[in-house]
Amino acid sequence: MSLDDFKSIYSMEWGHRILGRAIGLAFVLPLAYVALRRRLARSLRAPLLSMAGLLGAQGALGWYMVQSGLEPANLPRRTVCS
């Protein structure tokens, strides 16, 4: 893989991560504001909190996938030829 290929992939992954965080914050912050003001209809509490939980779970799963790929057992071994 060339450096330009790596930069392209890294840029896409970085953008994807930032977009996910922005979407999560755009959903959770207004939800928290409305919930704390007690303006959230009782019938919407469980579905909206469940959706917020699923957003968090999706972020945690993405973090786990990246983290598990960085374990030494999963990284390719580099050997030095003498």
Can you tell me about this structure?
This protein has helices at 3-36, 42-69. With 82 residues, it is mainly alpha-helical. Helix 1 runs antiparallel to helix 2 (42-69).
- Terminal CA distance reads 24 Å
- Beta strand count: 0
Judging from the principal axes of the Cα atoms, what is the shape? Answer: elongated
Structural class call reads mainly alpha
Given as residue ranges, the uncertain stretches (5+ residues, pLDDT < 50) are none
Mean pLDDT rating = 90
Give a quick account of the main beta sheet: strands, pairing sense, barrel closure: none
Tally of helical segments:
2
Helical proportion, percent range: over 70%
Percent in strands: under 5%
Radius of gyration: 20 Å
SSE blueprint:
Blueprint: H1 3-36, H2 42-69
Tag the structure with descriptive keywords.
76% helix, elongated, 82 residues, mainly alpha
Short recap of the structure:
The protein contains two helices and no strands. The protein is mostly helical.
